Protein: FAD-dependent monooxygenase
Organism: Nocardia tengchongensis
Amino acid sequence: MNTTSTPKILVVGGGIAGNTVALQLLRAGIATTVVERATTPRPGGQAVDLRTASKEAAERMGLLPGIGKLRVHEQGWAYVTEEGKTYARIDVDMFDGEGPAAEIEIARGDLNQVLLDLIAEVDGPLDYRYGDWIEHLTQDATGAEVTFASGRTERYDLVIAADGVHSATRRLVFGPDEQFVTHLGGYMAFFTMPTPADTEDGWLTGCSIPSASFAIRPDRDPATSKAIITLRQDYDPALRRDPAAQQARIREMLDGAGWKAPLILDAMAGSDDFYFDQLARIDVPRLSSGRVTLLGDAGYCGSPLSGMGTAMAIVGAYLLAGEIAATPGDLDGAQARYQELVTPFLDKAKELPGGGIKMMLPTTRFGAAMARVNWRLMTSKAMLPLTKKLFAPGTADYVLPTY
Ligand SMILES: Cc1cc2nc3c(=O)[nH]c(=O)nc-3n(C[C@H](O)[C@H](O)[C@H](O)COP(=O)(O)OP(=O)(O)OC[C@H]3O[C@@H](n4cnc5c(N)ncnc54)[C@H](O)[C@@H]3O)c2cc1C
Protein backbone atom coordinates (compact mmCIF):
# COMPACT_ATOMS: atom_id res chain seq x y z
CA MET A 1 0.00 0.00 0.00
CA ASN A 2 0.95 3.59 -0.51
CA THR A 3 1.76 5.68 2.50
CA THR A 4 -0.01 8.70 1.08
CA SER A 5 -3.35 9.24 -0.64
CA THR A 6 -1.90 12.22 -2.54
CA PRO A 7 0.92 10.54 -4.48
CA LYS A 8 3.73 12.28 -6.28
CA ILE A 9 4.23 10.88 -9.76
CA LEU A 10 7.04 11.21 -12.32
CA VAL A 11 6.25 10.79 -16.02
CA VAL A 12 9.32 10.19 -18.19
CA GLY A 13 8.74 11.34 -21.79
CA GLY A 14 6.50 14.07 -23.15
CA GLY A 15 5.15 12.16 -26.17
CA ILE A 16 1.55 11.11 -26.73
CA ALA A 17 1.55 8.53 -23.92
CA GLY A 18 3.33 10.74 -21.36
CA ASN A 19 1.28 13.84 -22.06
CA THR A 20 -2.05 11.95 -22.03
CA VAL A 21 -1.36 10.34 -18.67
CA ALA A 22 -0.05 13.64 -17.25
CA LEU A 23 -3.22 15.44 -18.37
CA GLN A 24 -5.50 12.93 -16.66
CA LEU A 25 -3.41 12.79 -13.46
CA LEU A 26 -3.43 16.57 -13.19
CA ARG A 27 -7.18 16.68 -13.72
CA ALA A 28 -7.44 14.26 -10.77
CA GLY A 29 -5.37 16.69 -8.70
CA ILE A 30 -2.32 14.40 -8.52
CA ALA A 31 1.11 16.04 -8.29
CA THR A 32 2.84 15.26 -11.60
CA THR A 33 6.33 15.94 -12.88
CA VAL A 34 7.05 15.38 -16.58
CA VAL A 35 10.63 15.18 -17.86
CA GLU A 36 11.17 15.28 -21.62
CA ARG A 37 14.65 14.72 -22.98
CA ALA A 38 14.20 17.07 -25.95
CA THR A 39 14.57 20.77 -25.22
CA THR A 40 11.23 21.72 -26.86
CA PRO A 41 8.12 19.73 -27.89
CA ARG A 42 9.25 17.41 -30.68
CA PRO A 43 7.64 18.23 -34.03
CA GLY A 44 7.31 15.74 -36.83
CA GLY A 45 5.65 12.50 -37.64
CA GLN A 46 2.98 11.78 -40.18
CA ALA A 47 -0.72 11.38 -39.52
CA VAL A 48 -1.44 8.91 -36.73
CA ASP A 49 -4.77 7.13 -36.42
CA LEU A 50 -7.35 7.00 -33.68
CA ARG A 51 -9.29 3.77 -33.96
CA THR A 52 -11.80 1.80 -31.87
CA ALA A 53 -11.39 2.29 -28.08
CA SER A 54 -8.80 5.06 -28.54
CA LYS A 55 -11.44 7.18 -30.30
CA GLU A 56 -13.75 6.69 -27.34
CA ALA A 57 -11.00 7.41 -24.82
CA ALA A 58 -10.07 10.59 -26.74
CA GLU A 59 -13.70 11.67 -26.67
CA ARG A 60 -14.07 11.02 -22.94
CA MET A 61 -10.87 12.94 -22.19
CA GLY A 62 -12.11 15.92 -24.21
CA LEU A 63 -9.45 15.67 -26.94
CA LEU A 64 -11.82 15.70 -29.92
CA PRO A 65 -12.50 19.46 -30.17
CA GLY A 66 -8.72 20.14 -30.38
CA ILE A 67 -8.20 17.22 -32.76
CA GLY A 68 -11.11 18.45 -34.91
CA LYS A 69 -9.32 21.75 -35.50
CA LEU A 70 -6.02 20.15 -36.55
CA ARG A 71 -6.99 16.84 -38.13
CA VAL A 72 -6.03 15.87 -41.63
CA HIS A 73 -8.97 15.25 -43.93
CA GLU A 74 -7.75 12.22 -45.80
CA GLN A 75 -9.98 10.73 -48.51
CA GLY A 76 -8.11 7.47 -48.97
CA TRP A 77 -5.01 5.74 -50.24
CA ALA A 78 -4.00 5.27 -53.89
CA TYR A 79 -1.30 2.91 -55.14
CA VAL A 80 0.64 3.84 -58.26
CA THR A 81 3.19 2.20 -60.53
CA GLU A 82 6.66 3.65 -61.04
CA GLU A 83 5.18 5.43 -64.08
CA GLY A 84 2.57 7.07 -61.84
CA LYS A 85 -0.42 5.00 -63.07
CA THR A 86 -2.97 4.24 -60.32
CA TYR A 87 -3.68 0.51 -59.94
CA ALA A 88 -5.62 0.35 -56.64
CA ARG A 89 -7.55 2.69 -54.37
CA ILE A 90 -8.81 2.45 -50.81
CA ASP A 91 -11.45 5.00 -49.94
CA VAL A 92 -11.80 5.82 -46.21
CA ASP A 93 -15.48 4.83 -46.44
CA MET A 94 -14.71 1.40 -47.94
CA PHE A 95 -13.69 0.21 -44.45
CA ASP A 96 -16.14 2.38 -42.50
CA GLY A 97 -13.27 4.56 -41.31
CA GLU A 98 -11.50 1.62 -39.59
CA GLY A 99 -9.36 0.34 -42.47
CA PRO A 100 -5.80 1.21 -43.52
CA ALA A 101 -7.04 4.80 -43.99
CA ALA A 102 -8.77 5.74 -40.72
CA GLU A 103 -11.56 8.22 -40.14
CA ILE A 104 -9.61 10.28 -37.59
CA GLU A 105 -6.09 11.15 -38.70
CA ILE A 106 -3.96 13.85 -37.09
CA ALA A 107 -0.26 14.57 -37.46
CA ARG A 108 1.62 13.22 -34.45
CA GLY A 109 3.12 16.63 -33.62
CA ASP A 110 -0.34 18.28 -33.79
CA LEU A 111 -1.85 15.67 -31.46
CA ASN A 112 0.96 16.30 -29.01
CA GLN A 113 0.19 20.04 -29.19
CA VAL A 114 -3.51 19.37 -28.47
CA LEU A 115 -2.43 17.53 -25.31
CA LEU A 116 0.02 20.25 -24.27
CA ASP A 117 -2.67 22.92 -24.73
CA LEU A 118 -5.10 20.95 -22.53
CA ILE A 119 -2.39 20.43 -19.89
CA ALA A 120 -1.80 24.21 -19.86
CA GLU A 121 -5.51 24.75 -19.13
CA VAL A 122 -5.45 22.60 -15.96
CA ASP A 123 -4.76 24.52 -12.80
CA GLY A 124 -3.01 21.54 -11.20
CA PRO A 125 0.23 20.59 -9.43
CA LEU A 126 2.47 20.29 -12.50
CA ASP A 127 6.24 20.49 -12.92
CA TYR A 128 7.07 20.13 -16.65
CA ARG A 129 10.76 20.07 -17.55
CA TYR A 130 12.36 19.91 -20.98
CA GLY A 131 15.96 18.89 -21.54
CA ASP A 132 16.15 16.50 -18.59
CA TRP A 133 16.21 12.74 -18.10
CA ILE A 134 16.91 10.09 -15.47
CA GLU A 135 20.54 9.24 -14.74
CA HIS A 136 19.99 7.00 -11.73
CA LEU A 137 17.04 5.30 -10.04
CA THR A 138 16.75 3.24 -6.85
CA GLN A 139 13.56 1.73 -5.46
CA ASP A 140 12.11 0.52 -2.19
CA ALA A 141 8.64 -0.80 -1.41
CA THR A 142 6.92 2.59 -1.45
CA GLY A 143 8.67 4.61 -4.12
CA ALA A 144 11.70 5.50 -6.17
CA GLU A 145 14.54 7.93 -5.66
CA VAL A 146 15.55 9.47 -8.95
CA THR A 147 18.63 11.46 -9.89
CA PHE A 148 18.25 13.54 -13.05
CA ALA A 149 20.87 14.62 -15.57
CA SER A 150 20.27 18.17 -14.32
CA GLY A 151 21.69 17.05 -10.96
CA ARG A 152 18.44 17.12 -8.94
CA THR A 153 17.50 14.12 -6.80
CA GLU A 154 13.85 13.59 -5.90
CA ARG A 155 11.59 10.90 -4.50
CA TYR A 156 8.37 9.77 -6.23
CA ASP A 157 5.64 7.32 -5.25
CA LEU A 158 5.44 6.11 -8.85
CA VAL A 159 7.52 6.52 -12.01
CA ILE A 160 5.68 6.15 -15.34
CA ALA A 161 8.15 5.39 -18.13
CA ALA A 162 6.68 6.78 -21.37
CA ASP A 163 10.00 7.36 -23.12
CA GLY A 164 9.27 5.50 -26.34
CA VAL A 165 10.49 2.40 -28.20
CA HIS A 166 14.10 2.87 -27.08
CA SER A 167 13.11 3.63 -23.46
CA ALA A 168 16.18 4.26 -21.32
CA THR A 169 14.03 3.83 -18.19
CA ARG A 170 13.04 0.33 -19.35
CA ARG A 171 16.73 -0.57 -19.80
CA LEU A 172 17.59 0.85 -16.38
CA VAL A 173 14.85 -0.95 -14.45
CA PHE A 174 13.72 -3.96 -16.52
CA GLY A 175 16.98 -4.94 -18.25
CA PRO A 176 18.56 -5.01 -21.73
CA ASP A 177 16.52 -4.35 -24.88
CA GLU A 178 17.18 -7.82 -26.34
CA GLN A 179 14.56 -9.30 -24.00
CA PHE A 180 11.80 -7.02 -25.21
CA VAL A 181 12.55 -5.73 -28.70
CA THR A 182 11.87 -7.70 -31.91
CA HIS A 183 13.10 -6.16 -35.15
CA LEU A 184 10.32 -6.55 -37.72
CA GLY A 185 12.55 -6.57 -40.78
CA GLY A 186 12.47 -2.93 -41.77
CA TYR A 187 12.81 0.78 -41.12
CA MET A 188 10.55 3.75 -41.73
CA ALA A 189 11.27 7.43 -42.33
CA PHE A 190 8.90 10.41 -42.23
CA PHE A 191 9.50 14.05 -43.10
CA THR A 192 7.70 17.11 -44.42
CA MET A 193 8.07 18.07 -48.09
CA PRO A 194 6.46 20.59 -50.45
CA THR A 195 3.31 19.14 -52.04
CA PRO A 196 4.08 18.22 -55.68
CA ALA A 197 1.97 20.20 -58.18
CA ASP A 198 -0.04 17.25 -59.58
CA THR A 199 -0.95 15.70 -56.20
CA GLU A 200 -4.53 14.49 -55.87
CA ASP A 201 -6.14 16.45 -53.07
CA GLY A 202 -6.64 14.47 -49.84
CA TRP A 203 -5.14 11.22 -51.10
CA LEU A 204 -2.15 9.36 -49.72
CA THR A 205 -0.38 8.08 -52.83
CA GLY A 206 2.26 5.39 -52.65
CA CYS A 207 4.53 3.36 -54.90
CA SER A 208 6.30 0.07 -54.14
CA ILE A 209 9.50 -1.24 -55.65
CA PRO A 210 11.44 -4.33 -54.57
CA SER A 211 12.32 -4.00 -50.84
CA ALA A 212 11.04 -0.42 -50.47
CA SER A 213 8.03 1.82 -50.78
CA PHE A 214 7.65 5.60 -50.85
CA ALA A 215 4.50 7.61 -50.40
CA ILE A 216 3.24 11.17 -50.18
CA ARG A 217 0.56 11.85 -47.60
CA PRO A 218 -1.61 14.97 -47.23
CA ASP A 219 -0.79 17.42 -44.48
CA ARG A 220 -3.10 19.86 -42.73
CA ASP A 221 -1.50 22.64 -44.77
CA PRO A 222 -2.15 21.83 -48.47
CA ALA A 223 1.21 23.40 -49.40
CA THR A 224 3.09 20.64 -47.60
CA SER A 225 2.85 16.84 -47.47
CA LYS A 226 4.48 14.09 -45.46
CA ALA A 227 6.89 11.75 -47.20
CA ILE A 228 6.82 8.18 -45.89
CA ILE A 229 9.57 5.74 -46.79
CA THR A 230 9.56 2.10 -45.79
CA LEU A 231 12.64 -0.07 -46.26
CA ARG A 232 12.93 -3.80 -45.94
CA GLN A 233 16.21 -4.08 -44.10
CA ASP A 234 17.75 -6.25 -41.39
CA TYR A 235 18.71 -4.53 -38.16
CA ASP A 236 21.84 -2.46 -38.70
CA PRO A 237 23.46 -0.80 -35.66
CA ALA A 238 25.18 1.69 -38.01
CA LEU A 239 21.77 3.26 -38.68
CA ARG A 240 21.05 4.08 -35.01
CA ARG A 241 20.99 7.84 -34.33
CA ASP A 242 22.92 8.70 -37.51
CA PRO A 243 20.74 10.73 -39.91
CA ALA A 244 23.53 10.94 -42.52
CA ALA A 245 23.85 7.13 -42.63
CA GLN A 246 20.05 6.75 -42.61
CA GLN A 247 19.60 9.13 -45.54
CA ALA A 248 22.45 7.50 -47.44
CA ARG A 249 20.71 4.10 -47.05
CA ILE A 250 17.43 5.55 -48.28
CA ARG A 251 19.11 7.13 -51.31
CA GLU A 252 20.79 3.81 -52.11
CA MET A 253 17.52 1.89 -51.94
CA LEU A 254 15.44 4.42 -53.91
CA ASP A 255 18.14 5.06 -56.49
CA GLY A 256 16.57 4.93 -59.96
CA ALA A 257 13.05 4.38 -58.59
CA GLY A 258 10.41 6.14 -60.64
CA TRP A 259 7.30 8.18 -59.82
CA LYS A 260 8.13 10.92 -57.27
CA ALA A 261 11.30 9.31 -55.83
CA PRO A 262 13.63 12.10 -57.09
CA LEU A 263 11.37 14.81 -55.59
CA ILE A 264 11.17 12.96 -52.28
CA LEU A 265 14.94 12.46 -52.11
CA ASP A 266 15.55 16.14 -52.89
CA ALA A 267 13.17 17.21 -50.12
CA MET A 268 14.73 14.76 -47.64
CA ALA A 269 18.15 16.41 -47.93
CA GLY A 270 16.77 19.75 -46.71
CA SER A 271 14.06 18.57 -44.32
CA ASP A 272 14.11 19.83 -40.73
CA ASP A 273 11.86 17.14 -39.20
CA PHE A 274 13.44 13.96 -40.63
CA TYR A 275 12.46 10.99 -38.42
CA PHE A 276 13.84 7.49 -39.00
CA ASP A 277 13.51 4.41 -36.86
CA GLN A 278 13.52 0.64 -37.01
CA LEU A 279 10.20 -1.19 -37.17
CA ALA A 280 10.16 -2.86 -33.80
CA ARG A 281 7.70 -4.79 -31.73
CA ILE A 282 7.96 -4.32 -27.97
CA ASP A 283 6.64 -6.99 -25.62
CA VAL A 284 7.16 -6.65 -21.88
CA PRO A 285 5.21 -9.36 -20.07
CA ARG A 286 4.97 -7.48 -16.72
CA LEU A 287 4.51 -3.76 -17.25
CA SER A 288 5.46 -2.85 -13.69
CA SER A 289 8.59 -3.53 -11.70
CA GLY A 290 8.15 -2.21 -8.19
CA ARG A 291 7.11 1.41 -8.51
CA VAL A 292 8.08 1.83 -12.18
CA THR A 293 5.39 1.25 -14.79
CA LEU A 294 5.78 1.21 -18.57
CA LEU A 295 3.34 3.14 -20.75
CA GLY A 296 3.02 3.46 -24.55
CA ASP A 297 5.82 2.38 -26.92
CA ALA A 298 8.17 1.86 -23.95
CA GLY A 299 6.06 -1.11 -22.86
CA TYR A 300 4.09 -2.14 -25.93
CA CYS A 301 4.50 -1.42 -29.59
CA GLY A 302 3.55 -3.07 -32.85
CA SER A 303 5.56 -0.54 -34.93
CA PRO A 304 4.02 2.12 -37.22
CA LEU A 305 3.01 -0.79 -39.51
CA SER A 306 0.34 -1.78 -36.98
CA GLY A 307 -1.23 1.69 -37.24
CA MET A 308 -2.07 1.30 -33.55
CA GLY A 309 0.87 2.86 -31.66
CA THR A 310 -0.98 6.03 -30.78
CA ALA A 311 -4.20 4.13 -30.05
CA MET A 312 -2.34 1.91 -27.55
CA ALA A 313 -0.66 4.94 -25.96
CA ILE A 314 -3.99 6.73 -25.50
CA VAL A 315 -5.91 3.72 -24.20
CA GLY A 316 -3.03 2.78 -21.89
CA ALA A 317 -2.76 6.31 -20.49
CA TYR A 318 -6.51 6.56 -19.98
CA LEU A 319 -6.55 3.25 -18.06
CA LEU A 320 -3.44 3.92 -15.99
CA ALA A 321 -4.53 7.42 -14.94
CA GLY A 322 -8.07 6.18 -14.30
CA GLU A 323 -6.86 3.39 -12.01
CA ILE A 324 -4.43 5.66 -10.14
CA ALA A 325 -7.14 8.28 -9.61
CA ALA A 326 -9.54 5.54 -8.40
CA THR A 327 -7.15 4.43 -5.63
CA PRO A 328 -4.43 7.05 -5.12
CA GLY A 329 -3.61 5.45 -1.79
CA ASP A 330 -3.04 2.02 -3.36
CA LEU A 331 -0.64 2.42 -6.26
CA ASP A 332 0.31 -1.28 -6.26
CA GLY A 333 -3.35 -2.14 -6.81
CA ALA A 334 -3.68 0.53 -9.53
CA GLN A 335 -0.62 -0.84 -11.37
CA ALA A 336 -1.98 -4.40 -11.22
CA ARG A 337 -5.41 -3.37 -12.53
CA TYR A 338 -3.80 -1.33 -15.34
CA GLN A 339 -1.91 -4.45 -16.47
CA GLU A 340 -5.04 -6.59 -16.33
CA LEU A 341 -7.22 -4.09 -18.20
CA VAL A 342 -4.78 -3.04 -20.91
CA THR A 343 -3.46 -6.51 -21.84
CA PRO A 344 -6.48 -7.73 -23.89
CA PHE A 345 -6.37 -4.50 -25.92
CA LEU A 346 -2.63 -4.79 -26.55
CA ASP A 347 -2.76 -8.43 -27.61
CA LYS A 348 -5.05 -7.50 -30.50
CA ALA A 349 -3.60 -4.06 -31.29
CA LYS A 350 -0.04 -5.33 -31.81
CA GLU A 351 -1.05 -7.69 -34.62
CA LEU A 352 0.13 -6.51 -38.03
CA PRO A 353 -2.63 -6.25 -40.62
CA GLY A 354 -2.03 -7.98 -43.92
CA GLY A 355 0.96 -10.12 -42.94
CA GLY A 356 3.66 -7.55 -42.10
CA ILE A 357 6.61 -6.32 -44.10
CA LYS A 358 7.29 -9.56 -46.00
CA MET A 359 3.88 -9.35 -47.64
CA MET A 360 4.05 -5.58 -47.97
CA LEU A 361 7.49 -5.33 -49.53
CA PRO A 362 8.63 -8.34 -51.55
CA THR A 363 12.32 -8.32 -52.43
CA THR A 364 12.07 -9.20 -56.15
CA ARG A 365 10.53 -7.47 -59.22
CA PHE A 366 8.27 -10.48 -59.70
CA GLY A 367 7.16 -10.34 -56.03
CA ALA A 368 6.47 -6.60 -56.28
CA ALA A 369 4.39 -7.17 -59.45
CA MET A 370 2.42 -9.92 -57.69
CA ALA A 371 1.82 -7.63 -54.71
CA ARG A 372 0.28 -5.07 -57.10
CA VAL A 373 -2.04 -7.69 -58.60
CA ASN A 374 -2.94 -8.71 -55.08
CA TRP A 375 -3.83 -5.14 -54.04
CA ARG A 376 -5.91 -4.62 -57.16
CA LEU A 377 -7.82 -7.81 -56.37
CA MET A 378 -8.24 -7.07 -52.68
CA THR A 379 -9.71 -3.64 -53.35
CA SER A 380 -12.07 -4.90 -56.08
CA LYS A 381 -15.81 -4.92 -55.34
CA ALA A 382 -15.99 -8.71 -55.35
CA MET A 383 -13.22 -9.21 -52.80
CA LEU A 384 -14.01 -6.26 -50.54
CA PRO A 385 -16.06 -8.17 -47.92
CA LEU A 386 -13.14 -10.58 -47.44
CA THR A 387 -10.56 -7.77 -47.39
CA LYS A 388 -12.62 -5.95 -44.77
CA LYS A 389 -12.38 -9.00 -42.53
CA LEU A 390 -8.62 -9.16 -43.04
CA PHE A 391 -8.18 -5.51 -42.01
CA ALA A 392 -10.91 -5.41 -39.35
CA PRO A 393 -9.33 -4.04 -36.18
CA GLY A 394 -9.08 -6.88 -33.65
CA THR A 395 -9.76 -4.31 -30.95
CA ALA A 396 -13.30 -3.47 -32.16
CA ASP A 397 -14.94 -5.44 -29.31
CA TYR A 398 -12.80 -4.02 -26.52
CA VAL A 399 -14.93 -2.40 -23.82
CA LEU A 400 -13.32 0.63 -22.20
CA PRO A 401 -14.04 0.98 -18.48
CA THR A 402 -15.69 4.20 -17.32
CA TYR A 403 -14.11 6.26 -14.57
C1 LIG B 1 9.33 12.70 -33.43
C2 LIG B 1 8.48 11.48 -33.53
C3 LIG B 1 7.79 11.19 -34.73
C4 LIG B 1 7.00 10.05 -34.84
N1 LIG B 1 6.34 9.83 -36.00
C5 LIG B 1 5.53 8.77 -36.12
C6 LIG B 1 4.80 8.54 -37.32
O1 LIG B 1 4.89 9.31 -38.25
N2 LIG B 1 3.99 7.44 -37.41
C7 LIG B 1 3.86 6.57 -36.37
O2 LIG B 1 3.12 5.60 -36.49
N3 LIG B 1 4.55 6.77 -35.22
C8 LIG B 1 5.36 7.83 -35.07
N4 LIG B 1 6.06 8.03 -33.90
C9 LIG B 1 5.83 7.07 -32.81
C10 LIG B 1 4.49 7.36 -32.16
O3 LIG B 1 4.50 8.69 -31.66
C11 LIG B 1 4.25 6.38 -31.05
O4 LIG B 1 4.23 5.07 -31.60
C12 LIG B 1 2.93 6.51 -30.31
O5 LIG B 1 2.36 7.78 -30.40
C13 LIG B 1 3.16 6.20 -28.82
O6 LIG B 1 3.81 7.30 -28.25
P1 LIG B 1 4.79 7.27 -27.00
O7 LIG B 1 4.47 8.51 -26.25
O8 LIG B 1 4.72 5.97 -26.30
O9 LIG B 1 6.23 7.34 -27.65
P2 LIG B 1 6.94 8.54 -28.42
O10 LIG B 1 5.98 9.28 -29.27
O11 LIG B 1 8.15 7.98 -29.06
O12 LIG B 1 7.36 9.56 -27.24
C14 LIG B 1 8.40 9.30 -26.34
C15 LIG B 1 8.91 10.64 -25.81
O13 LIG B 1 9.90 10.39 -24.81
C16 LIG B 1 11.02 11.24 -25.04
N5 LIG B 1 12.20 10.56 -24.48
C17 LIG B 1 12.94 9.58 -25.06
N6 LIG B 1 13.90 9.18 -24.21
C18 LIG B 1 13.74 9.92 -23.08
C19 LIG B 1 14.42 9.96 -21.83
N7 LIG B 1 15.45 9.14 -21.57
N8 LIG B 1 14.01 10.84 -20.89
C20 LIG B 1 12.96 11.69 -21.14
N9 LIG B 1 12.29 11.68 -22.31
C21 LIG B 1 12.68 10.81 -23.26
C22 LIG B 1 11.06 11.42 -26.55
O14 LIG B 1 11.76 12.60 -26.91
C23 LIG B 1 9.57 11.50 -26.88
O15 LIG B 1 9.08 12.82 -26.79
C24 LIG B 1 6.88 9.15 -33.74
C25 LIG B 1 7.56 9.42 -32.56
C26 LIG B 1 8.35 10.56 -32.43
C27 LIG B 1 9.08 10.83 -31.13
